[in-house]
Amino acid sequence: MARCADVLVIGGGPAALCIASELHQRGVAVEGIALEPVDAAWPNTYGIWVDELKVLDLEDLIEHRWSDTVSYFGAGGSEAANQPLLHGIDYGLFDRAALQRYWLDRAPGVTWHQGSAEAVQAGPVITTVTCASGETLHARVVIDASGSRTPYIRRTDLGPVAGQAAYGVVGRFSKPPIEPGRFVLMDYRCDHLSDEQRLEPPTFLYAMDLGDGVFFVEETSLALASGVPYDVLKQRLQQRLDRRGVQITEVIHEEFCLFPMNLPLPDRSQPVLAFGGAASMVHPASGYMVGSLLRRAPGLAEALAAALADPSLGSADLARRGWQALWPMELVLRHQLYQFGLGRLMGFNEQLLRRHFATFFSLPREDWFGFLTNTLPLPRLIGVMLRLFALSPWELRRGLVLGAAQRQAPGFRR
Ligand SMILES: Cc1cc2nc3c(=O)[nH]c(=O)nc-3n(C[C@H](O)[C@H](O)[C@H](O)COP(=O)(O)OP(=O)(O)OC[C@H]3O[C@@H](n4cnc5c(N)ncnc54)[C@H](O)[C@@H]3O)c2cc1C
Fold first, then answer.
1. Are 81 and 354 in contact (CB under 8 A)?
2. Which residue's CA is the closest to the ligand 1 atom numbered 16?
């Protein structure tokens, strides 16, 4: 009889390493299959509010940290409209290698296969994964952590999925493109745009000072079905820099980013589990996910370890237990609320969006932070959304209730 792991994880990104490590910590026999070696450098950088790591005692995984964290919700052009809104809370960028090493070190007994999972076949007892090499791997249950584009996870087709798109440059500039030492979550100033461009889907600048004269500037659209094209984002970034009299003198790295914001939830009756992007865990209002991985993996691992202790349970039973732990009704309802909110905001033009975000960040810090990190219990989340509605000017309220006429792109940025 071929070897059969308790759990086989597909993928080698943050979600795969995170869930593999939590399962291993609970004595589960885990194997993984990933396209690249699991210690190969990840392509993306990941940002997070430092307070999310503080409660997990993982602040050490931060490579860059900013206390001067701001956004701009004025139109720009005048002194008043150029005033930043201060977030008053630290933001950080993960040391990618340290995060990867943290998870790998906590899972020394996991066997990683390098290859491509090409087919996943769940039987009554075990699940078989066929690799591109022809090799087959067996496990009592499979967790697909191969990202949001996975073909192995069923979900309801709810029409076009909105994507977060961004074009960014890590580089050196003729003068600082933002205040030195600063992190800019969203700069929605639009005084560099023509009247026609201001009618197009809004985009904002996400930017940070990386030290030693290096800055990261990224033009971002969060949540537009099919995504704003990269050439439009690049053009807008250039115009923004031109307006401030800033030239790029050295391009160290270009980032092209596109990932789904409102992927429908997976069908939770299927016999294959998922985690991370494959499980629609990206926050529909913020685009962030790594904090969620860290918070939600222990619960899923705990439930699976308990279920695996019962040898009579087959793949479908184990997956069902896993889905219940990962997406309990509370989280499903919160997710639906976020998706509803995103749908409303997608109709806003840039003026409404700026007003919306200015109102949102005028909420008490616990409320906007809890909203953005999905850490508010459902009744409180509903309360926050109602308070936001009550604080909003009439035009905004109408947009929130009815949606607005245009197909615009709102958003927070990772
Ligand atoms: C450019 C970018 C920047 C982002 N920044 C942030 C951020 O700052 N903060 C944040 O919280 N979130 C961020 N996100 C959102 C989210 O956290 C990331 O998309 C994250 O990488 C998703 O993790 P994942 O492990 O689910 O999927 P992925 O990172 O996509 O990893 C999938 C893995 O599966 C492997 N794989 C795919 N198919 C197969 C197969 N058939 N067989 C075997 N292996 C396979 C891939 O090689 C890869 O290793 C960002 C997303 C993008 C695209």
1. no
2. 289
Average pLDDT value for the chain: 92
36 lines ligand 1 (CB under 6 A): yes
| Maximum separation of any 2 CA atoms in the chain, in Å | 74
Measured by CA distance, the residue closest to atom 6 of ligand 1 is 46
User: What are the backbone angles phi and psi of residue 46, rounded to the nearest 5°?
Assistant: -125, 130
Percent of the chain with pLDDT over 70: 96
DSSP structure string for 309-364: T-TT--HHHHHHHHHHHHS-HHHHHHHHHHHHHHHHHTT--HHHHHHHHHHHTTS-
**pLDDT, tens only, 239-251:** 999 999 999 999 9
What single-letter amino acid sits at 231? D
Is there an atom of ligand 1 within 6 Å of 130 CB?
Answer: no
92-122 pLDDT, tens digit per residue, is: 999 999 999 999 999 998 999 999 999 999 9
Give the list of residues 6+ apart from residue 323 with CB closer than 8 angstroms, or none: 266, 268, 269, 273
Q: Under a CB-based contact definition with an 8 Å cutoff, are residues 61 and 17 in contact?
A: no
